[in-house]
UniProtKB/TrEMBL annotation:
Region (Disordered): 25-99
PROSITE patterns tied to this protein: PROKAR_LIPOPROTEIN
Protein name in UniProt: D-alanyl-D-alanine dipeptidase
Catalytic reactions of this protein: D-alanyl-D-alanine + H2O = 2 D-alanine
Record note on cofactor: Binds 1 zinc ion per subunit.
Bias-annotated ranges (Low complexity): 25-85
Cofactor(s), by name: Zn(2+)
Signal sequence bounds: 1-25
Residues the entry annotates as binding Zn(2+): 218, 225, 286
One term of GO molecular function: zinc ion binding
EC numbers for this chain: 3.4.13.22
Record-level GO BP terms: cell wall organization; proteolysis
Provenance organism: Paenibacillus pasadenensis
Basic and acidic residues bias (residue ranges): 88-98
Length: 304
């Protein structure tokens, strides 16, 4: 894929996010959980953060972007994702947003365990390969089993002195959302997100190729999709291909990416493996806790 084409897609994605924000309600999804807490103030930083969040995953976003102009930008995108009291070195607890329900036994909200990670729950938004919010995503929260969340915190802490933190795209995924993936893959008429997420893959083959499965490990509550953010700027790191891009470029060990993104993928992998997670060869962002507490149980409670 050419850089120009990527850049065009990028612009389209940013526009899409902006329009989603304009429409109201969706802004809270990208970036901060505080924004979802309902405060009017929280809404604007979140909107500001959206375009840059969309921009960063693509290799077309110039790696030097962080260093160049737009001095306001990094601060804007960093602020909502970090804890409200400006980044204290200790992970101080922040006011817990009101949660709508008690979680099933053994599950936790990840931001209550790792307040300084970033959260952009893509399936709560329409910026994902389906192009719509998924069933069961009633709020932009990352939920995991307690064991998985605590292991994830180890990875986050391991990365801190290296200048990185974890940014989470998805964690526990209700089984009903996975059923929605199945229905989506069978609907050949719906190609709205093809350009951006699966330009070279026939969506009907997404299952066979291993990009989606009819029962996802995510529904067992100990699997997470994530990337790195740079602590200095708060920006998402360039990992060589965007989250949820269906293609060989997303596999570990791909020769299609540069040295720096390859090193970042390796760093994330090392952090996750040290914390007890195993990688998935086809998706650099997908990790499952080795000793997951519910290895055979698939949950379907809503995220709220
Ligand atoms: Zn995943």
């Amino acid at each position: 894929m050419s850089r120009t084409r990527k850049a065009a897609m990028l612009a389209a994605a940013a526009a899409l996010l902006l329009s989603a924000c304009d429409a109201g309600g969706q802004g809270a999804a990208s970036g901060s959980l505080e924004a979802a807490g309902g405060s009017a103030n929280a809404a604007s930083p979140s909107v500001a953060a959206s375009p840059s969040a969309a921009a960063s995953p693509s290799p077309a976003a110039e790696p030097s972007a962080a260093a160049s102009p737009a001095p306001a930008e990094p601060a804007a995108s960093a602020a909502p994702a970090m804890s409200p009291k400006p980044a204290s070195p200790k992970e101080e607890k922040k006011p817990v947003p009101e949660r709508k329900r008690k979680l099933p036994s053994g599950f936790v909200y990840v931001d209550e365990v790792i307040p300084t990670a970033q959260y952009e729950i893509r399936y709560f938004t329409d910026y994902n390969f389906v192009g719509a919010r998924l069933d069961g995503y009633n709020a932009p929260y990352a939920i995991l089993t307690k064991q998985a969340a605590e292991a994830l915190k180890e990875a986050h802490d391991f990365l801190a002195p290296k200048g990185y933190g974890l940014k989470i795209f998805d964690a526990y995924r209700p089984a009903k959302a996975v059923r929605q993936f199945v229905a989506w893959s069978k609907d050949a008429s719906d190609q709205r997100m093809k350009e951006e997420f699966y330009p070279e893959v026939d969506k009907a083959k997404a299952f066979k190729l291993g990009y989606i499965s009819s029962r996802s490990g995510h529904s067992r509550g100990s699997t997470v999709d994530l990337t790195l953010f740079e602590r200095k700027t708060g920006k998402e790191a360039d990992m060589g291909s965007p989250f949820d891009f269906f293609g060989d470029i997303s596999s570990h060990g791909t020769p299609e990416i540069g040295k720096a993104p390859a090193e970042r993928r390796a760093l994330l992998k090392r952090a996750m493996e040290l914390a007890g997670f195993k990688p998935y060869s086809k998706e650099w962002w997908h990790y499952t806790l080795e000793k997951e507490p519910f290895p055979k149980k698939y949950f379907d409670f809503d995220i709220e």
